[in-house]
Amino acid sequence: MEEGAHAANIFRSQSDTNIGLSSSANSAVALAQKFIAEAIGAYFIIFAWFGSVEMNRLFDDESITSPGISMTWGAVAMVMIYSLGQVSGGHFNPAVTITFTIFHRFPWKLAPLYIIAQLIGSVLAFGTLALLLDVNLKDYFEYFPKLG
């Protein structure tokens, strides 16, 4: 097998295999798996990234620091890509999905589904952080210009 073709098949979806259902049921299951994988991946990446930023802000001594935040985000992104990349391709970010779609590496018809899943995962992560931590919205939105 040509080396490039082998590399392209590394993240081939496991859900493409027949699991004993009809073709339409198989495709519905595969789409659901991809949707859930993208939502879970986006959730954990956003939760870890902004959770570490918020924890760094809460402690006055800045115990985590910028390199720690970067390492946290990178480690979680790596774990999510390795664990869920075979199911969905491991985009977890609308910018990645749009870029792959523009350069014809991803089908246009699946892009909205992936983006919706990523947005749902991100909103759920922020909601979880807001419940767990004392989040003051003024800390995040005070720099926007006033309307009127």
From TrEMBL:
GO cellular component, as recorded: membrane
Signal peptide range: none
Topological relation to the membrane, as annotated: Multi-pass membrane protein
Transmembrane segments: 31-52, 64-84, 113-133
PROSITE patterns: MIP
Key words, A-Z: Membrane, Transmembrane, Transmembrane helix, Transport
Record flagged with keyword Mitochondrion: no
Domain of life: Eukaryota
Family annotation (Gene3D superfamilies): Glycerol uptake facilitator protein
Protein's cellular compartments: Membrane
A GO MF term: channel activity
Protein family (similarity comment): Belongs to the MIP/aquaporin (TC 1.A.8) family.
Matching PANTHER family: AQUAPORIN NIP-TYPE-RELATED, AQUAPORIN NIP2-1
Protein's name according to its UniProt entry: Probable aquaporin NIP-type
Encoding gene (name): LOC104225747
